[in-house]
Amino acid sequence: xxxxxxxxxxxxxxxxxxxxxxxxxxxxxxxxxxxxxxxxxxxxxxxxxxxxxxxxxxxxxxxxxxxxxxxxxxxxxxxxxxxxxxxxxxxxxxxxxxxxxxxxxxxxxxxxxxxxxxxxxxxxxxxxxxxxxxxxxxxxxxxxxxxxxxxx
Length: 152
Description:
By secondary structure, the protein is mainly beta. The chain has one helix spanning about 1-20, and strands at about 30-35, 40, 55-65, 70-75, 85-95, 100-105, 115-120, 125-130, 135-140. The termini are far apart.
């Protein structure tokens, strides 16, 4: 029985490797529009009991064929007096490893420790972990023509 279990494991491992596309695309161009932050639809309107430092109004991620990722976020920053709307733009590089996306912190200041932004890209859905800092999950969907013109 031990030999047949080893064969079954080997066949399962071989099938798993055969289904992964090591030669697949390393970039997937497109514009993705922010739909939610931590499961809350944008614009994120805080509850009266919340004490947010900012609320997210909108955002996009543009993935270019050359491996460039442009992240935009429009928000209201309540840490300023008076509260102010601001747009944050980051131009970074990205790579794909199957469905996993890694956005590298090319804009990291000298002598700083900057971690890559990681996420999952499946079909038209992009999920990123904390693309603008903090402990947030951003969910994007590929833009359609009715989402408005892209700013590529």
